[in-house]
Amino acid sequence: MQSPLLAKLTGRLGARQALLEWKWMNEAAASAPSKFSLQDMVRRRCFGEPLQYILGTQPFGPLNLLVRPPVLIPRPETEHWVIKLSETIRPTAQNPCRLLDLGTGSGCIPLLLCHLWSPGSVHMHGVDISPHAIHLANENALLSGISTPSDGTTPRDKNTFGTTLASFLIPTFPDELFQIKPPFDVVTSNPPYIPWKEFLELPRSVSDYEDPRSLFGGPSGLEFYEAIARFIGRKGMVSPDGVVALEVGRGQANAVEELIRTTGRVRHTEIWTDPWGVERAVVGRM
Ligand SMILES: C[S@@+](CC[C@H](N)C(=O)[O-])C[C@H]1O[C@@H](n2cnc3c(N)ncnc32)[C@H](O)[C@@H]1O
Fold first, then answer.
1. I want to staple 266 with a disulfide (CB 3.0 to 4.6 A). Which of 57, 216, 271, 284 is the partner?
2. Are 228 and 102 in contact (CB under 8 A)?
3. How far apart are CA 247 and CA 229, in angstroms?
4. How are beta strands 122-128 and 97-102 bridged, if at all?
5. Domains of the chain
6. What is the mean pLDDT of each run of 10 residues along the chain (286 residues)?
7. Which molecular-function annotations from GO does this UniProt entry contain (predicted)?
8. What pLDDT, on a 0 to 100 scale, did the predictor assign at position 199?
C-alpha cells in the first residue's frame, strides 16, 4: 500500500516528480535521521518550498553546493554553459587567468570553473550585493576545497576564490575590490534578468523563496547587462584578449549581444543554446 506521505506528495507534484523527490527525501532521511524527517520534508514541499532548500544542497557539475534561502538555487542551464566555457578556455598555471564573477550568489559559476580548470590556473573573485550570498559562496568555497587566502596572496599552485560585498551597478565599481585588481581576463555573470512585468508569472516556489534582488533586471530585464556593458567598455577593466560570458533570459540574447558589441571593445560574439533549445549565454571575445 502507498505511504500516505507519498500520496500527499503525488497530489501536489504528480506521480512522476513525486516518486523522484520521495526517493531523494528517503535518502536524506536515511543519511541524517536527526536532521531530516519525512513528515516535515513532505509538509514543506507541499507548501511550495523548493526541494533544494529542504535538502540544503544542489549538485552543480561534480560539486555538491550548499543552498539556503534567499540565495538563488543554481540552475541546470547555468551548469551547462559553465561546463562549455570550461572546455572553451583553457588557462594554465604558466599563464593563470583572473576571473570576475558579477552577482555570484552561491558562488556556483567560479567554484565550478575553479574545480574544472587545472590547479594554479585561475584566480577568481565573486561580487554580490547580498550578504547572505557572500556568506554562502565562502562556505561553498571551503566545502569545495577552494582556498580563499585572507592575506591577499595568490598561491601559484592553487586556484583561488575570494568575494566582495558590493554592487556592480554603481559607476565607480570595482574600485572597492581589494583582492584582485583589473584588468580581468574573464568576466562571467548570470545577472538578474526577469523583467518586472513577469513577476506575476513566476511560480510561487520561486517568488516566495528566492531573493527578488536575484531575479529582477529592471523594467526591461536588461538593466544589469547595460551596467556590464558600461563596465567592459571602460578602459583597463578587461584584458585585450579577454572573454565575457553572460547568461541571458529567454529572448534576450540578441539584445545582450548588441549591448556588448556597442562597447566597441568586443570583436567577436557567440550565442550558446541550452539543452532545452533556448539561447542561454552570450559569449564575447575582446
Ligand atoms: C540570477 S542570481 C545568480 C546567482 C549565481 N551566479 C547563479 O548563477 O546561481 C543574480 C545574483 O546577483 C546578485 N545581485 C543583484 N543585484 C546586484 C548588484 N547590484 N550588485 C551585485 N550583485 C547583485 C543577487 O544577489 C544574486 O545573487
1. 284
2. yes
3. 14
4. parallel
5. 4-47 (no CATH), 76-285 (3.40.50.150)
6. 89 94 95 94 95 96 96 97 96 93 98 95 94 97 82 76 92 73 94 89 87 91 96 93 96 97 94 97 97
7. methyltransferase activity
8. 79
Kindly state if the Cβ of 160 falls inside 6 Å of ligand 1: no
How far does residue 103's CA lie from ligand 1's centre (Å)? 3
Query: Is 188 close to ligand 1, i.e. is its CB under 6 Å away?
Result: no
Specify the pLDDT at position 198.
86
119 upstream amide cis, omega within 30 of 0 = no
Burial class (CB in 10 A: 0-12, 13-18, 19+), 111: buried
Q: What is the pLDDT of residue 174?
A: 83
Q: Could you give the count of Cα atoms lying within 13 Å of 74 in the half-sphere of its Cβ? A: 31
Whether omega before 70 lies within 30 degrees of 0, making that bond cis, reads yes
Cell readout for 147 is 582556498
